[in-house]
Write a structure and sequence with these properties.
The complex is a heterodimer of chains A (about 375) and B (about 240).
Chain A lengths: L1 H33 L2 E5 L2 H4 L9 H9 L4 E15 L4 E9 L1 H7 L2 H4 E4 L9 E5 H7 L6 E7 L5 E12 L4 H6 E5 H8 L7 E6 L5 H11 L3 E5 H4 L1 H39 L1 H10 L3 H37 L1 E2 L5 H6 L5 E2 L8 H15 L1 H8 L3 H6 L1
Parallel strand pairs in A: 3-8, 5-7
Antiparallel strand pairs in A: 1-9, 1-10, 2-3, 2-6, 2-9, 4-7, 5-8, 6-7, 11-12
Helix pairs in contact in A: 1-11, 1-13, 1-15, 11-15, 11-16, 13-15, 13-16
Chain B lengths: L3 E12 L6 E12 L3 E5 L6 H8 L7 E6 L2 E2 L5 H11 E4 L11 H11 L4 H14 L15 H14 L4 E5 L7 H18 L2 E6 L2 H6 L2 E6 L2 E6 L5 H7 L1
Parallel strand pairs in B: 3-8, 3-9, 6-7, 7-8
Antiparallel strand pairs in B: 1-2, 1-4, 4-5, 9-10
Helix pairs in contact in B: 3-4, 3-5, 4-5, 5-6
Chain lengths: ~375, ~240
């Protein structure tokens, strides 16, 4: 009974943990990195030419903002360039943003760990990621130079002052992305009021594909991508981890099977005389087989609610309070884009499948002990 | 003339046939009639338990035929033999072998459930049996709460519950003190004389042998003597 309960508990806990991790990663991707949908000029992402702005960006933005499924949109100008300081240089992506809107779309303000962020009245301010700041030895107030090409193909350099150091759950992105005000970047790029990207946050995750379809119809000349297409590695990771969770489930079921085989073999060994006596008195082999099978099923039935309740209660507790995995290595988790606090979430639609798997395993596992019981000869059994 | 219940011809049981053959039972003929109260006696290793197992259908002889009520049980398939045992033979084992998680009543009822006896008939039979074994007040007690003698009486009730043709008892008094052994023998003798139930039991116990109406003495797998209790000199010799 205990092995069934532990098997179910472990199955629920593993699935909940993996689902929680993946949900957390997907939410980070959507709400902190790239939003649900992004629109670019169709050739922009090929080589990030600054001249490939969205043709009628403001018009597009107002149309999209008016859609009922859309929660908020952010316009962004983007340039690939070089960040230089007295100590060295690093390749970066410069994101020109409208701070107040960007704070809502990607929660950039919540990620600031040092400094205050952009000041409305000041120019040439920059936010850098913690990993980049550590690498380039940047502090609040440090000066740096950004170098990139403008729309005319000229090399442009401009000095910026660090007003904030941010840290997200993805250290790779922190090392690569810097944020400046869009109007400052546009002046340097000579793009005027144009921009390169519209990031769209939806009210409901389920509207992702219908909205993408609608936007593709509205703006056929532009590239409309969902987060799945922009970050295929996240989608792949979700699928891979989903498969891993099944592999782990199978390992747990194997352990459960051996537990049941051991338990039932012990039960038969302890009751060899009893079974021998039953056969001697007239219990048919099929009844002995059914007896072992029924006993296993009763044990499974008794263990199932215990395992399910323990699994669901534990999952619910950690779903509310979070499971701190920082002991596993904050840096390592962040390098894969994971938060160190996971909120496990059990996929309730899989409960029936888990119950059937556990029960099926229990029934299959008892076959060997049941056959063993079948082969007992009453004369030998009664002698023990 | 009484009806024949056990008729065994030329039965042999050999162990270690490939190495050094040991004849546990060697060419034995045995004929038991309805209503007999027979004791199988002999020294340890003489083949008493083997012979009981063979005539009880728990083991198969290497040669010979065993007819129970005219049916050659050596020719029955495993499943038919189990069913035959259920309907025709009652067993009492040396170490009681009651199911510990069942009550005394449930232990006796178990065999009737295997026979698919109706609830009403079961209740009637059980109350009759527990009255006969004088354990009516202990019907709902588990075996662990009963003395050895009481457990063996429950085992007798279980053996009789299926209304068998005969009861085979393998050293039924071996684990009992003398008073319990005497009580059990009284019970078996009473059932034999009043209800004409056939008992064949193996024993070492001289007091048991003296109560038997027929004593079959086995030596080295052969019947050395088959006598009435008044002439038990051979049996006495081997029961020591």
């Amino acid at each position: 009974m205990l092995s069934v309960a532990i098997g179910l508990f472990a199955g629920i806990a593993v699935l909940a943990l993996y689902k929680g991790m993946m949900q957390s990663r997907v939410r980070t991707v959507i709400y902190s990195e790239m939003a649900h949908i992004q629109i670019h000029q169709k050739d922009f992402k090929k080589d990030y030419q600054p001249s490939y702005t969205l043709g009628v960006g403001d018009k597009m933005a107002s149309v999209i903002a008016g859609m009922k499924e859309v929660k908020i949109i952010a316009k962004r100008s983007i340039a690939q360039g070089m960040l230089s300081t007295a100590t060295g240089s690093s390749t970066i992506q410069i994101n020109g943003v409208e701070p107040r809107i960007e704070y809502q779309v990607s929660q950039l303000d919540r990620k600031i760990v040092k400094g205050n962020g952009f000041h409305q009245e000041k120019r040439n301010e920059i936010l850098v990621g913690k990993k980049l700041a550590d690498k380039m030895k940047l502090l609040i107030g440090s000066k740096l130079v950004l170098t990139f090409t403008d729309t005319a193909g000229n090399i442009v350099s401009a000095a910026f002052r660090v007003v904030g150091i941010y840290q997200s759950q993805n250290t790779s992105l922190d090392e690569l992305n810097v944020y400046v005000e869009m109007k400052t970047l546009n002046e340097l790029l000579l793009t005027g009021t144009s921009f390169h990207e519209i990031a769209i946050l939806l009210t409901n995750d389920n509207d992702l594909l219908p909205v993408q379809r609608k936007l593709k119809q509205l703006f056929p000349g532009d590239l409309v991508e969902t987060w799945r297409e922009i970050s295929p590695e996240t989608e792949l990771m979700v699928r891979t981890v989903d498969e891993y969770s099944y592999i782990i489930m199978i390992i747990i079921l194997f352990a459960l099977a051996f537990g049941i085989i051991n338990t039932m073999l012990m039960a038969i060994l302890e009751r060899t005389r009893e079974i021998g006596m039953m056969v001697a008195l007239g219990t048919t082999r099929i009844k002995v087989f059914t007896l072992v099978l029924a006993e296993t099923i009763f044990l499974t039935i008794a263990g199932t609610p215990v395992g399910i309740l323990a699994g669901l209660f534990t999952t619910a507790y950690y779903h509310k309070h979070g499971l701190d995995l920082s002991g596993m290595g904050k840096e390592m988790m962040a390098s894969f884009g994971f938060n160190t606090i996971i909120y496990p979430s059990f996929p309730i639609e899989k409960l029936l499948a888990i119950m059937l798997l556990v029960t099926g395993t229990a029934v299959l596992s008892c076959l060997f002990p049941a056959f063993k019981a079948l082969r007992l000869q009453p004369v030998q059994a009664l002698r023990r | 003339m009484n009806k024949t219940v056990i008729d065994a011809h030329n039965i042999s049981k050999v162990y270690n046939r490939e190495t050094i053959p040991v004849y546990a039972i060697n060419n034995v003929h045995l004929h038991v009639e309805k209503g007999e109260f027979a004791a199988l006696v002999g020294p340890s290793g003489s083949g008493k338990t083997t012979l009981l197992n063979l005539i009880g259908g728990l083991d198969k002889p290497d040669s010979g035929e065993i007819f129970i009520n005219g049916v050659d049980i050596t020719k029955l398939s495993a499943n038919r033999l189990i069913n035959f045992r259920l309907q025709n033979i009652g067993f009492v084992f040396q170490s009681f072998n009651l199911i510990p998680v069942l009550t005394a009543k449930e232990n006796a009822e178990f065999i009737m459930l295997l026979q698919r006896t109706g609830k009403k008939d079961r209740e009637l039979r059980l109350s009759q049996l527990f009255r006969q074994i004088n354990l009516e007040e202990k019907m709902n007690v588990r075996p662990a709460e009963l003395s050895g003698g009481q457990q063996q009486r429950v085992a007798v009730a279980r053996a009789l519950a299926s209304k068998p043709q005969f009861v085979l008892a393998d050293e039924p008094t071996a684990n009992l003190d003398s008073k319990s052994a005497s009580n059990l023998l009284d019970l078996m003798a009473k059932l034999n004389s009043e209800e004409n139930i056939t008992f064949v039991f193996s024993t070492h116990d001289q007091r048991v042998i003296e109560r038997a109406r027929r004593v079959i003495t086995l030596v080295d797998g052969r019947i050395a003597a088959d006598t009435a209790p008044s002439d038990t000199s051979v049996a006495h010799q081997y029961s020591q």
